[in-house]
């Protein structure tokens, strides 16, 4: 049997099916597909559920008196969009392309695509292979480059789940290729998506314990430990769906009730810049690699844990971990409420364009995919600059507003038709950008004026 190449979407899911898929609550028979082109895009179908659950969590946290930290949430959702935009542009299909190639040419046995045993085997195999990739992503410095983005949030909320590295696929894909010797690509494609989706809801502090399920499943409590930078949390609980792998391979750590978990990187990155969150560790990795003088130490630096230094064990000395200073201060430059509201409004526009581009992906011309990708990535970059209070943030945001509105005016009917945006809505969006541009010009002139007066 020859298998067709990777596709993104073909069939429709109901609202309830999309919701159940977000929790891996599906039956084998409803997730059997002979061809990859028949496999639904469960991730796209989950997007509305993400936003419903994120809004619910925000309302509950707000009622409990927690600060909402719009900056952190927009940055986390933005990292998820960043990662998906590269997928839209076709840069990530390497994983499926290679899987299909190996299955077509080198499979040693052909498991049936519509058998419950194939379904169970793939679910377990994917989860176990994920555990090993995830463990090595923490224990091997060069792989940590591709994963540290996910740990850069200092909050532990549902949006943290979306803070994904755009480049992790390039490191993780090879871990799943052994499955191609046996299992049809359609089954791999189903479980790859469901496994990833399951990991969404466990990123919350609102769920305490799930009782006996804590023995088998990865839960919010177990995954809180994984995101902690308290010394007892380091290099623990790598599971995706089943916590059994951590219990089997000696990395399980239950949450301590008498020590609050402090979240984020051991060395916090202190920025909301989307690009820095994705790539800054690569740059510091390269810089630190140059500092090691011998080939042996260079190799150890690459393949030992990120905490390794000459003379320490493979994963570094636990005593060298920076002590947590109480009360814990998270990175949170003080921006005015109006700027938060402004960024939120423009972020919603970017999310709408992103959603349209994702849902309509297969019918969009390449030019529309490229222009919406540029719009989304540049918007995320400018929002980060605003939240970081960079000195040039006013200028970059003004440029974004001017260039975006000019593009939408020039290609008004194409944008409206391709992205299926009603003309009246598109006109309102252009109005918002023009109004914003005028506001930034007034602010720049008034700040220049006040600087002149203070001289
Ligand atoms: Zn991790
Ligand atoms: Zn996580």
Give the topology:
Blueprint: H1 15-21, H2 42-63, H3 70-88, H4 94-106, H5 116-139, H6 141-144, H7 158-162, H8 168-176, H9 185-201, H10 220-227, H11 244-249, H12 274-291, H13 295-303, H14 337-359, H15 366-388, H16 393-410, H17 412-418, H18 423-454
Helix pairs in contact: 1-2, 2-9, 3-14, 3-15, 5-9, 14-15, 15-16, 16-18
Which ligands accompany this protein? zinc ion
Order of helices and strands: HHHHHHHHHHHHHHHHHH
Radius of gyration: 23 Å
Number of domains: 3
What percent strand?
Answer: under 5%
Structural class: mainly alpha
Number of helices: 18
Largest sheet: none
Number of strands: 0
Helix content: 55-70%
> What would you call the shape?
globular
CA-CA gap between termini = 78 Å
Describe the structure.
The chain has 455 residues and is mainly alpha-helical. The model is unreliable at 1-8 (pLDDT under 50). The protein is globular, with a radius of gyration of 23 Å. The chain folds into 3 domains: 15-249, no CATH class; 279-320, no CATH class; 337-454, no CATH class. The chain contains 18 helices and no strands. One zinc ion binds next to helix 10.
Observed structural traits:
binds zinc ion, mainly alpha, single chain, 18 helices, 0% strand, 455 residues, globular, 3 domains, disordered N terminus
Quick gist of this model?
With 455 residues, the chain is mainly α. The protein folds into 3 domains: 235 residues, no CATH class; 42 residues, no CATH class; 118 residues, no CATH class.
């Amino acid at each position: 049997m020859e298998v067709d190449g990777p596709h993104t979407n073909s069939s429709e899911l109901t609202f309830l099916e999309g919701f159940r898929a977000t929790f891996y609550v599906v039956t084998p028979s409803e997730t059997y597909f002979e061809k990859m082109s028949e496999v639904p895009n469960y991730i796209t179908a989950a997007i509305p559920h993400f936003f419903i659950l994120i809004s619910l969590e925000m309302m509950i946290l707000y009622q409990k008196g927690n600060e909402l930290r719009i900056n952190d949430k927009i940055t986390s959702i933005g990292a998820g969009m960043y990662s998906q935009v590269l997928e839209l542009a076709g840069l990530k299909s390497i994983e499926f392309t290679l899987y299909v190639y190996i299955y077509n040419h080198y499979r040693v046995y052909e498991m049936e695509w519509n058998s419950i045993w194939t379904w169970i085997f793939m679910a377990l195999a994917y989860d176990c292979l994920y555990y090993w990739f995830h463990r090595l992503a923490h224990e091997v410095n060069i792989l940590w480059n591709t994963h540290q983005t996910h740990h850069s949030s200092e909050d532990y909320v549902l949006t943290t789940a979306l803070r994904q590295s755009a480049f992790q696929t390039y490191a993780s894909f090879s871990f799943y290729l052994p499955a191609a010797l046996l299992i049809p690509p359609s089954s791999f494609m189903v479980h790859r998506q469901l496994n990833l989706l399951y990991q969404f809801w466990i990123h919350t502090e609102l769920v305490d314990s799930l009782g006996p399920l804590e023995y088998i499943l990865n839960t919010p409590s177990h995954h809180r430990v994984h995101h902690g930078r308290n010394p007892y949390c380091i290099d623990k609980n790598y599971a995706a769906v089943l916590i059994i792998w951590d219990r089997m391979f000696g990395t399980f750590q239950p949450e301590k009730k008498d020590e609050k978990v402090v979240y984020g990187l051991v060395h916090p990155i202190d920025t909301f810049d989307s690009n820095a969150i994705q790539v800054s560790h690569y740059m510091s990795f390269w810089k630190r690699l140059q500092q090691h003088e011998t080939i042996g130490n260079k190799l150890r630096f690459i393949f030992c844990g990120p905490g390794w230094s000459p003379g320490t064990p493979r994963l570094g000395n636990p005593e060298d971990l920076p002590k947590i200073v109480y009360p814990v201060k998270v990175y949170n430059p003080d921006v005015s409420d109006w700027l938060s509201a402004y960024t939120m409004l423009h972020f919603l526009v970017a999310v709408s364009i992103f959603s349209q581009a994702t849902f309509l992906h297969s019918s969009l011309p390449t030019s529309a995919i490229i222009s919406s990708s540029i719009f989304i990535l540049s918007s995320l970059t400018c929002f980060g600059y605003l939240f970081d209070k960079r000195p040039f943030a006013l200028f970059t945001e003004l440029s974004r507003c001017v260039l975006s509105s000019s593009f939408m005016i020039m290609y008004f009917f194409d944008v409206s038709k391709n992205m299926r945006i009603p003309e009246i809505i598109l006109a309102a969006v252009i109005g918002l950008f023009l109004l914003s541009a005028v506001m930034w010009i007034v602010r720049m002139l008034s700040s220049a004026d006040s600087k002149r007066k203070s001289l």
